[in-house]
Amino acid sequence: MADNPLGSQWKTLDRDLNRIGQLEMATNYVARPMVGLGIALAFILLAFLIAIIWFGGTEGSLIVAAAAAVGAYMAINIGANDVANNMGPAVGANALTMGGAIAIAAVCESAGALLAGGDVVSTISKGIIDTKAVEDGQVFMWAMMAALISSALWVNLATYVGAPVSTTHSVVGGVMGAGIAAAGMTAVNWPTMGTIAASWVISPVLGGLIAAMFLALIKHKIIYREDKITAARVWVPILVGIMAGVFATYLAMKGLKRIVKIDLQTALLVGAAIGVATYFITKPLILRQSQGLENRNKSLKVLFGIPLVFSAALLSFAHGANDVANAVGPLAAIVHASEFGDFSSKVAIPMWVMIIGAFGISFGLFLFGPKLIRMVGSQITKLNPMRAYCVALSAAITVIVASWLGLPVSSTHIAVGGIFGVGFYREWHMERRLRGLKGPVPAAKTIASIERRRRKLVRRSHFMTIVAAWVITVPAAALMSAAIFSVLYWFAI
After folding, report:
1. Contact 73/152 with Cβ under 8 angstroms?
2. Is the pTM of the predicted complex or chain greater than 0.70?
3. In terms of CB atoms within 10 Å, which of 34, 106, 373, 465 comes out highest?
4. SS3 120
5. Tens-level pLDDT at each residue, the chain (493 residues)
6. Distance CA 471, CA 479 (A)
7. Backbone angles phi, psi at 346, to 5 degrees
8. What is the DSSP code string of 161-179?
9. Residues in a beta bridge with 121
10. Residue 443, SS3?
11. CA 166 to CA 409: how far, in whole Å?
12. Neighbouring residues of 104: CB distance < 8 A, sequence distance ≥ 6
């Protein structure tokens, strides 16, 4: 039988089309990061043009416009790195999809920055340098510019290597390095730097301990009970009430500075009232939601899913209200120095500066955030809704405790410390249960020590990378800032 020439032509055509299809897929895959970079560059250019139009023709307008562009770049990096700490646990626990997390975080971060963001910010990051030591206004502006550039570059590098770092500490390091380069070692407030260095340890340890305590409570009171659903009906409303009370206290104390000033005692009373009200509202809802659920751990995840989503949203709102102002502080200082010809330890943040910060965070989260969200949510340790709920709750409680003690803490360190705390508690608890088992030795106890280490519930490589990034954030940002200031000042003169 003769070959069918038409059939041969169709086969050749199919092969060619397949090659073209593969080429199109490869092109789209390679071009995807370029699209993100293009949008980010367009936003940075837009911030530059807005500042030029706003300050057009005035002296120093070019410096302000350049600072606005760098501030937009910094805000994008905050969205790519810092916001992952609030949304990562909810995504890792499968309570939120990646798209849902990005949408909620973008709205809540922007709302927190624009509605409840502090109208006054310490432009030198909580008194890191003495403004009197830098007498020349031009030198001060170049120092703040160097701090802004170095902190943005450091956060960008940390995001690239997959390490969640504190943007506030990056700004602190940048301001410190520029201050030393501009006015010497005496310009730095070293006692303040000492308390910030102490917070590197206090923040994650306190967050981890509180998260582990709540996980132990859930295991003891719900998971290990014979009737898990009945136990959950008792304890889940209590835990949701605690969450509501804690977040009400947190937001009253930290997130509503622009609307009203509230001291810690009043905030605690407000939180207690809202927590009790939430308990009575939640109790019948949990009872209805638990009807027909099987008596197993998988059913418990359903009851924690919705509270976890709300906690992630509230954390994002509070983060936007607090950390955005810290990030754009150097930009606000440059704007103030350009407008009034002097500088102060505290200045008002113009609304257009806050808008750049808020929208920059949203762009950074949407374009570059998924990488860190996945890492925080699923690559450090395995999370489910109960564990992620403990992390979110510990983050809010730790901030309140630290404020009461007067300690400067990092929300990034607290959230990631909470994840470490949950993972290390599970490791300890698993080993303890294995040692306490009687009767025939289970297979898990006979596993070789090397294999047991390989199966640790917290990935040690991520742990070491993150801790190393935390330790070197301030000195690295300081060194970069000093070098950048020297270059800028050399060109300026």
Report:
1. yes
2. yes
3. 373
4. strand
5. 455 555 566 566 566 556 666 655 555 544 455 677 888 888 999 988 888 887 766 666 788 888 889 989 998 988 888 877 788 888 888 888 888 888 888 888 888 777 766 554 554 545 677 766 666 777 888 888 899 999 999 999 988 888 888 888 888 889 889 888 888 888 888 887 887 778 778 888 988 999 999 999 999 999 888 888 889 999 999 999 998 898 888 777 765 656 667 777 888 898 999 999 999 999 999 999 888 888 888 888 888 888 888 888 888 887 777 667 666 778 877 887 777 766 655 666 777 888 888 888 888 888 888 888 888 877 788 888 888 889 888 888 887 777 676 666 777 788 888 888 998 888 888 777 777 655 554 554 444 454 445 446 677 777 888 888 888 998 999 999 999 999 988 876 5
6. 14
7. -135, 130
8. HT----HHHHHHHHHHHHH
9. 347
10. helix
11. 10
12. 87, 96, 309, 312, 313, 316
Residues 84 and 91: beta-carbon distance below 8 Å = no
Question: How far, in Å, CA of 385 to CA of 300, rounded?
Answer: 9
Q: How is residue 65 written in tokens?
A: 């416009």
Token reading at 452: 């047991």
Two tokens, residue 445:
């106890």
Amino acid at 192: T
